[in-house]
Automatic annotation (TrEMBL), chain A:
Keywords, alphabetical: GTP-binding, Lipoprotein, Nucleotide-binding, Prenylation, Protein transport, Transport
Any single biological process term in GO: protein transport
Xref: Pfam families: Ras
Single Gene Ontology MF annotation: GTP binding
PROSITE patterns with a match to the protein in the record: ARF (PS51417), RAB (PS51419), RAS (PS51421), RHO (PS51420), SIGMA54_INTERACT_1 (PS00675)
Family per record: Belongs to the small GTPase superfamily. Rab family.
NCBIfam families according to UniProt: small_GTP
Protein name: Ras-related protein Rab-1
From TrEMBL, chain B:
Residue ranges constituting the Rab-GAP TBC domain according to the UniProt record: 28-258
Cross-referenced SMART domains: TBC
Annotated Gene3D superfamilies: putative rabgap domain of human tbc1 domain family member 14 like domains (1.10.8.270), Ypt/Rab-GAP domain of gyp1p, domain 1 (1.10.10.750), Ypt/Rab-GAP domain of gyp1p, domain 3 (1.10.472.80)
Cross-referenced InterPro entries: Rab-GAP-TBC_dom (IPR000195), Rab-GAP_TBC_sf (IPR035969)
Protein name in the entry: Rab-GAP TBC domain-containing protein
MF terms (GO), sorted A to Z: GTPase activator activity
Amino acid sequence: MSQASNSAPYDMQIKLLMIGDSGVGKTCLLLRYANDSFSPTFITTIGIDFKIKNVDVEGTRIKLQIWDTAGQERFRTITTSYFRGAQGILLVYDVTDRRSFESIRNWISQIQQHADVHVNKILVGNKCDMLDEKVVSTEEGQKLASEFGIPFFECSAKNDIHVESSFMHIAKAVKDRLKADGQGGPSAKTGLNLKPNQSGGKDKKCC
Amino acid sequence: SYRDSQFDKVIHADVVSLATLRPLTWNGIPPPHRALAWKLLLGYVPTNASRRSHTLTRKRAEYREAIIQHYDIADQNTRTLQEQECLRQVLVDAPRTAPDIPLFRNDRIRRLLSRLLYVWAMRHPASSYVQGINDLATPLIVVFLADYYPLHTVLQGHVMNHVSDERLDDVEADVYGCLTNLLAGIQDHYTADQPGVQRMVMRVEELVRRIDVDLCKHLAAEGVQFLQFAFKWMNCLLLREFSLPCVVRLWDTYLSESNGFEDFHVYVCAALVCQFSASLQTMNFETLFAFLQELPTATWTDKEIEMLLSQAFVLGTLFGGSDAHLVQHG
């Protein structure tokens, strides 16, 4: 049960957010990572959901609070309200769906509008197991990631390819950034239960 | 039983009196009468029995025309970009609708669902298709199939070995017509920014504040906002919280109320959250969020649903008409 892992001691808490078009497999990636499970027909996400995962990154015990969002345009008002306060964002597309790849630029501009300036980002191309249906090449993915200066992974939630390494990569990047900023000690953990539409700074004081 | 025979009399009258039917349906509709009762209460079939068969034939034919006009288009390039995107979304979501129920893993059912959702979206461009509307079609599909086959045969999907294409087409048309009428009452739940959903969440929060201020204080102190958990309750009308047979029972009562999917639903949601008040008040942010996201209600039966409905009724009696007034000033 998640309650047991919730109470595990940790040195730092990090809030991650998953965004991308509807149907690219955000929930499947999260369930693969957090629960090590996969179902080909998972139910659509409405609004927002979240999971907790405790990890050890180079000796730092980190509690990852991972927020999963609905991809459909109509929910944009509610989902973008969760952008502020996220410390790392996974931008997900589906390598078998070019539209979802083309939407990444739009998602980047959503981040620029709604997220914190220093938020870490990572580009994830999901469903890389479906070789016959793949329409977005690895090179294209890499090129776009380079253009925005962010790391890139091709994953498969179904076959468990690079799922863990993607999450670990962004967790480490956020950890390193927070440590460099002098944040991230145990004292910071109370400040990270972020509510929508509130700035991080304001939130820390309220606790 | 007496109730069944009473129902028989009312529903088989030459002209059904909805005013007599509504109070009877509040406590649950006997399964043999459910499909017809829902169609009557949703205004899909006329109360005058002699006109019913003709109306059904006409509506089913109209729906078939709409499929040809909107769905059966050979050249996909004649669709606008918005139409292509809507079709893509519907086709992505059909297999992700109630996948735990075997019936909804059937290809013919998925096609039925895709078609009726897409046709509905084309006819309602102000909202178009929004995720969650697919969920709302599921009780209608189950109830209308269960008019011809036993409920467990329907849910288990065995029904698909027996049902003819013609009959399934009729069921599809009826689901489309009833879903259209149901959604007409809650249209602004799915338009831009979903003002209806936002308003309903505010009403639930205001109600809970009046019933259980300690719970509200605890949620606020932990940083949990009503919108975070009640959004889904409004957007999918609790389809994600209860088993499908329980939702069917819930809807018997919603359809009995004059504005059940809007007003009475608010009381049901307030009663639902207050029911767990004691445990909720012991939880921190993360446990609260996880609990409210996945309530321990999946195993509920009609008995628990009927308790909830009674509590909601009491709330409606106590606060009816006054909470809407409060929200305007809040």
